[in-house]
Amino acid sequence: MKSGDKLRTMTLRGVMTEISRLEKAEKRAPNTEATTDEILQIFKRERAKREESLEFARKAARVDLIEQNEIEARILESYLPATASADQVRAEIAAAMAGGASQMGAIMKALREKFGARLDGKTASELAKEALAKK
Q1: Total Cβ atoms within 10 A of residue 126
Q2: What is the tens place of the pLDDT at every residue in 93-112?
């Protein structure tokens, strides 16, 4: 806020709102704070929203919205941990398959346990399907 970056401030306020909404959800115990994993999921979800909006803005040729969504996505991305590389994911898929996992669900569960918030679900899913097709 002190730097005067209104777009960054607005983006982060939106994330803070989502975190507050999560903490006040009816299904949660009263006065419990969001965990780091939950906060990272909120950042991922917000970034995905920006990427989806970016696609629509590109189809509509809205230069102003394209620029805004690109900047917001980069801001959100800066708060996320680096994603696991494709080679790391392939190695873990091979290890899971060697350990007896022969279905998509079991492989994805093993990947989520190994990488947590660093896992890009879309890439992991594609790599897992590719590995299962070769089997």
Answers
A1: 13
A2: 888 888 888 888 888 988 88
Counts of helices then strands in the chain (DSSP H, E): 6, 0
Q: What is this structure's pTM? A: 0.73
Instruction: State how far Cα 2 lies from the chain centre.
Output: 28
Whole-number Å distance between alpha carbons of 40 and 57: 26
Question: And the tokens for 46?
Answer: 């917000």
Residues 6 or more apart in contact with residue 117 via CB below 8 angstroms? 37, 40, 41, 44, 80, 81
| Residue 1 predicted with pLDDT over 80 | no
Residue 117 CA to residue 111 CA, distance in Å, equals: 10
Residue labelled with tokens 């680096």: 82
Q: What distance in Å separates the CA atoms of residue 116 and residue 119, rounded to the nearest whole number?
A: 6
